[in-house]
Amino acid sequence: MTKIKNIAKNTSYLTLALVVQKFISFSYFTILARNLDPENLGKYYLAISLTTIFAIFIDLGLVNVLTREVAKTPSRASKILGSVLSIKIPLSALALLATIITVYILGYDKLTSQLVYISSICMILDSFTMTFFGVSRGFHNLFYESLSSIIFQVIVLIFGLAALFLGLDLRYIIGALALASIFNFVYSGLILKFKIKINIRLFYDKAFLKSLLLLASPFALYAIFQRVYTYLDSILLSLFSGEAAVGIYQIPFKIIFALQFLPLAFTASLYPALSYYWLEDKKQLKVSFSRAMNYLIIVSVPIIFGIIFLADIIIALFKETYFSATLPLQIIIVSLFFIFLNYPIGSLLNACDKQKKNTRNMLIVTIFSVALNLLLIPKFGVIGASITVVATNFLMFILGMYFVKKTIDYRGRDNIKVFFKSLFSAVLMGVVIKTLETSIPVILLIILSASIYFFMLYILKAFKREDISSIYRSFSKKKSFKS
Known about the structure:
Blueprint lengths: L1 H34 L2 H22 L2 H11 L4 H30 L3 H29 L4 H23 L4 H26 L10 H35 L2 H17 L1 H20 L1 H28 L1 H5 L10 H7 L2 H17 L3 H26 L1 H26 L5 H24 L5 H18 L5 H11 L8
Helix pairs in contact: 1-6, 1-9, 1-10, 2-4, 2-5, 2-8, 2-9, 3-4, 3-5, 3-8, 4-5, 4-8, 5-7, 6-7, 8-9, 8-15, 9-13, 10-11, 10-14, 11-14, 11-17, 13-16, 14-15, 14-16, 15-16, 17-18
């Protein structure tokens, strides 16, 4: 029973922290965009994108293995941590060297290069912070990690805004990230030593290190593909279209990124139930998966239509210089439908011990993404990158559904019906938006449109009371987890 309560508490901590973190992060991004021109915003996020890709070569999936192995044998936590640190320290030096060489080869200007070097501090410190918190996760404690993620964003917000309004340049603004990373690094180390009671020391055993790397390899491959897939488009945009194009692209990119907390929190809560049903109740597994897909269809469709119809108003929240982001936003938001649905698909495959299928799918999608970006970005710039996001997420959806159908007895007829009911309701909602968008305040328009959408879904019987009860039982199915 204690383990059940820990799972529930950790889910609550993580979900709440995720919501608060995303809210602060997007609010800060909006302020940055309103005060920086596209070129400077592009330089800022180009530096972050480049170091985010190289950061994965420091971790190589080791944190996932660390958490899992500590959870299995808590008594060996110090040895496992020391071994992981012994691997990550030389990897950090190599990743930093690779970053410096890459900046030189790509020929970025002095300011952009300096931003990358400052961001590299975050790259290294965040990797070790993640390692320390990986141990606390192994001890089923996510409270301190959840708290630190919020404090991190608050530090960035305070010092970033201070630098912005004092008229300091981009080096000081990105320096706010470095300050937050330094805090998190120190904080996580102190939590590990004094709260989790784990000594931080290096441990070198060649055979043991090799076994850790072998265990981490599937996680490493997936993470590498995922990082390249997510952030390479910004680097290619900088090379073919300039850093201002990166700044324009960040508007739609950040919007869809911020909205992903909805399926992320949803599937984080659902995943333990899917894992249990895979072992104990295949019929309920299929039902829970289908209902999860229904709920995310119902949530994603109105967001997509609402943003398409209100795109010009949303872009107006930023500066006039970002007006060219309107069409990319209208294109890229379509991918939100597939992004939302890919969360339960990936969770199901992982829960059913098909994680290698997820890795293979990510490899295929990454290759496709790089090829399509290389084809479209030189010709169409930000529009080309936006089209690629939609196409690649659609491909991930198709590949994922193929393996879902091979794993469970799933047909999807109910999901298709819900989709068309949601589509009809969203079209009606869109008509209301276009009719009244100049007549009433935006907030009232959104509330009215959402009310019409869900009222129509209720009339069309797209969801039932027992559906809601079922998903609640999936989240809180205490009998499913043995203490």
